[in-house]
Amino acid sequence: MPPPRTRGTALRQQLAELRGPDVPAKALDARALAALAANPGCARRAILDGAGVDKTALASALGAPAAFGQSQFALTRGNAFEAKVKADGGAELLRLVHEKLDRSAEPPADARVPDLTATGPRGRTARTELELREATARPGEWTLLDHPMLALDVAGSPAFLEPDAVVVHPDGGWTVVEIKSFPLLDGSADPAKVGAAARQAAVYVLALEEFAARLGAEPDGAPAPYVRHRVLLVCPRDFSNLPAASAMDIRKQRAVTARQLARLTRIEDIAAALPEGICFSPERPAEELTAAVESVPAAYAPECLSACELAFHCRARSRQEGAVTTLGRPVRAELGGLTTVEEVLAAARGEAGDPGDPAVAALRRAAALRSEALEAACR
Predict the structure, then answer these.
(1) The model's pTM
(2) Who's near 169: CB < 8 A, 6+ residues apart?
(3) Is it the case that residue 2 has pLDDT exceeding 60?
(4) How far is CA 77 from CA 13, 81, 243, in A?
(5) Helix, strand, coil percent values for the chain (each to nearest 5)
(6) Which SS3 state, helix, strand or coil, does residue 190 take?
(7) What is the side-by-side order of every strand in the sheet holding 174-179?
(8) What is the SS3 assignment for 298?
(9) Cβ(62)–Cβ(313) below 8 Å
């Protein structure tokens, strides 16, 4: 067996070949990672994200583009709001952290805002880790890390993540801050958007916990820093550009995300099972690109439409195959071993299926009730 360094180099080379010659890797952000964790059985998304493939360009090349992302106006407004929140050395942001999460501490004044500039994601991650060490070793002070870079192991491959901010409290605790441009109306916001923000924050918390565990395992005997599971969500108040904040307890999202990430098949195992010479570069001919994508198993569900750029392509294939997953995961779970619509209809008509199977028995009972209802309506 080759040593780990050799295996890692070979894997990186293979993933680069999957992207295509001279195609830069697309960074795996927390939003994509949360979506990947929500569908751990999809090997297609895992290998594409692991290889850094631009799925938006890939979907367009396959003829099934998805309208993803914010408008330029929304991006500009969001950037302006974030700059306002972080102005004056993050004074307003730290005030909100103190007010919502740590009133027992001394109010933040003259907080440290270290420079996290470095070359490349690995350099920025190392710089962030260095500043986290120093901030934790200086009790009694507030520290604001503006756009730090965190690393998280995902299916055997590192993912580099960039939260809006991480605050180190005077007691040494670490808090994730999410800054969003959707409004807080009368103290509440769109539940779907808040849920998405909580799942993203959970990914950042897991990355911080991974680094904290490494710190705690160092031979100096210092205790591991603790990562707070209450994160701060900062949004515009009502329809103004004034910041308002709410504390979110993301313990549930963190537990679910950690469990789902642990279930992901290792990237190297998926890559080893791929046919020789396949490439996901959008520059390839459409037929060749389609064959490459179809060579990797997918786990489509309607929920993918709001989370994956390839959802329309996968939905079309799922419908062609008559897969019951097209109807949703709850329906798929109720149907047991029946995996296609044709199998379901045949079981309902009594033409196939084991009568002792609860799913088959329920389908036949439903078909009988439907027939009775139609007969009664025609009388």
Answers:
(1) 0.75
(2) 97, 102, 105, 142, 175, 228
(3) no
(4) 39, 6, 13
(5) 50, 10, 35
(6) coil
(7) 143-146, 165-168, 174-179, 230-236, 243-249
(8) coil
(9) yes
